[in-house]
Amino acid sequence: MPTTDQPTIAVLGATGHLGRLAVEHLLQRGVEPGRVVATGRAVERLEDLAGQGVRVLPVERDDAGAVRSALEGVDRVLLVSGTDPGRVEQHRIAIEAAADAGVELLGYTSGPHADTSSVLLMADHRETEELLEASAVPSVVLRNAWYVENYTAQVATYREHGMVGAAGEGRVSLALRREYAEAAAAALTGEGHAGKVYELGGPAVTMPEIAEAVSAVIGEQVAYTDVAVEALRGILADAGVPAPMDAVFADVDRGIAAGELLVPTEDLERLLGRPATPLRAAVEEALSAG
Ligand SMILES: NC(=O)c1ccc[n+]([C@@H]2O[C@H](COP(=O)([O-])OP(=O)(O)OC[C@H]3O[C@@H](n4cnc5c(N)ncnc54)[C@H](OP(=O)(O)O)[C@@H]3O)[C@@H](O)[C@H]2O)c1
User: Fold this and answer.
1) Which of 41, 155, 235, 286 has the most CB atoms within 10 Å of its CB?
2) What percentage of the chain carries pLDDT values higher than 90?
3) H-helix or E-strand spanning residue 97
């Protein structure tokens, strides 16, 4: 049982990569395990955290009743953006439940320049940010730029086919998931973040620079080949990415080429209290984590 008057903090999406890391960072920041509510579907992944006293709850985001009961008595919430096509509706359910629970701060993991971006993937984030603006819940928008892991997760493919993209010489701001998670934990445990929109990202790098960093770390040459956006969509479709996600993912590279996934580094640096990890070290860490 909690023994202090610390706020109780819920993480919606704690079973995922970022959410779990956010829970770990909340604990590292001294939040009592009994003051952390960790939710998701695959809660068996959180057994170790439950063993430490974290309140683990299975919550399906479409189930408004389950979301509401998870947020009862909660003071702050990290809403990790979802993955389902209907995620905006799920976010609406969570935001309304947070408002009804009288939550004092809700952090939402959005995307770079979500309010103005032409990148297709940002449309759901823009809509969710609009829901937040219209809601009575004080919020902090954590616009996470790209994960280093988006690229390191593809290393097996890179070894076989090289790295193929359509981003040209465009730069994308990268950081490790754990860094975005730590920033979220800092915002959720800190003061003065309500009403803020943070553009979070680390070093701004090009695709050839990522290929070079991966090559150096794996000790094998990975070449970057640039193709047209439509050609990239076709490659993704051939690799089994279903429509419309083939077009949505290819469109990310169009966005990178246009500089739409580039953010200044100051917000992340300020929340972390240090600069984000440089590219090569970040690639090394992500690959050694598996
Ligand atoms: N910035 C980037 O580069 C980037 C890259 C990829 C994704 N994203 C976004 O950032 C989010 C966090 O990234 P991540 O790597 O941590 O993703 P992830 O590992 O896929 O985590 C997604 C989380 O959302 C939960 N979730 C999804 N649909 C749900 C539903 N219907 N009901 C209950 N829980 C649901 C998942 O629960 P279960 O696992 O228990 O089902 C999981 O906890 C993603 O969800 C996505 O919106 C950003």
Assistant:
1) 286
2) 97
3) helix 87-100
Q: From the CB of 146, is ligand 1 less than 6 Å away?
A: yes
pLDDT digits (tens, 9 = 90+) for 111-145: 999 999 999 999 999 999 999 999 999 999 999 99
Distance 23 CA to ligand 1 centre (A): 14
DSSP string spanning 241-286?
PPTTHHHHHHHHHHHHHTTTT---SHHHHHHHTSPPPPHHHHHHHH
Nearest CA residue ID for atom 25, ligand 1: 13
Q: Chain-wide mean pLDDT for the chain? A: 97
- CB 60 less than 6 A from any atom of ligand 1: yes
**Domains of the chain (ranges, CATH numbers):** 9-144+177-200+263-272 (3.40.50.720)
CA 13 to ligand 1: nearest atom: 43
Look at ligand 1, atom 2, and give the residue with the nearest C-alpha.
Answer: 146
Question: In a 3-state reduction of DSSP, which class is residue 225?
Answer: strand
218: amino acid identity, one letter = I
Pairing of strands 139-144, 197-200: parallel
Which tokens in the block code for residue 224?
């970057």
- Closest atom of ligand 1 relative to the 62 alpha carbon: 31
CB neighbour burial string for 211-247, b if at least 16 within 10 angstroms, e if fewer: bbbbbebbeeebebebeebeebbebbbeeebeeeebb
